[in-house]
Amino acid sequence: MLWGRGGGGEERGAKRAPPTAVDPPHPTPPHPLPSPQVDYKNVMREYGLGPNGGILTALNLFATRFDQVVALLEKARDPPLRLAVLDTPGQIEIFAWSASGSIMTDSLGASMPTAVVFVVDTPRCASAPAFVANILQAASILYRTRLPLLLVFNKSDVAGAGAVTSWLTDWDALDAALAGEKSYAASLSRSLSLVLDEFVGAIPHVTVSAATGAGFDDLLRACGALRETYAATYLPDLLARRGAAAAAEAERQAGELARMRLDAEGGAGGG
Fold first, then answer.
1. What burial class does residue 123 get, using C-beta atoms within 10 Å of its C-beta: 0-12 exposed, 13-18 middle, 19+ buried?
2. Which of 80, 132, 170, 270 is surrounded by the most beta carbons within 10 Å?
3. Residues 139-154: tens digit of each pLDDT
4. d(CA 231, CA 211)
C-alpha cells in the first residue's frame, strides 16, 4: 500500500509498477478518487461536501465493498499475481486515522502479505526538522497498522537523497543539522530525534525517482524482503490476536451460559 503526503509522487510511482501490479485506475481531478466505483464529484454535490469530506465519505462507501477488492486480488490467474499496488489518498491523515482506512488495511493484512510503502518527498526533507516530521509520521503509521514499513525517498532526480538518508543511520549528523536550526520547533525536533534514533535505523529504505524510473529495481527487491518481514512479524502477531479474541469470546459465551443456568435454576426453585 502506497502512503505519503500529498504531492510526494506516490501516484506517479504507482503507474511505474510492473504489469502484474494492480493499480485501481481513476480519473485525475484536483483531488484523487479513492476508487473508480465511487463517483467522487457526485458525492461532493449530493452531500454538499468539500474535498476532504468528499474523500472521507467516498472512502466510507468504498470500505463497504472492499471485500470485492480482496476477492479480486485473491482470484486465480495465469500467470499468478505477484504484486498489487494500492495507491491511497494524498490526504494521508484521512486514510490513516479513519475507520474505513483501518478496515481496508486490516482486511488486506489478514488476507495476504501486505506492507506499507511510505513515500517521502525528498526535496521537502532537505531541512532536518522536516525530515524528523516525516519520520515521526511514518512511525505513527507503523504503530497504527503494525504492517512492515518501507521508506521510499522519491524525486531523486530533483534533489539527491544522500544527505537525507544519512540521517537515518548517523544520529550525530542529524543532531548537527538540527543544532544549526534556530526555530522554536528545532528543539522539539531534536528531542524527538533522540526517541526516533533506534527506530529509524531498523526501517529499510530506498531512493527512487518516479519521473525517471531510477531505483525501481531496488524498490521491487525491497518489496520482496517485506514479504519475509510480514511472515516473521505481522503474521504471528495476527494469529496471536485472533487467538486472544477467540479466547475472550469463548469466555464471554461461557459466562453467558453460566448466567442462563443460574437464572433457570433460580426460576425452578421459586416455582
1. middle
2. 132
3. 888 888 999 999 999 8
4. 32
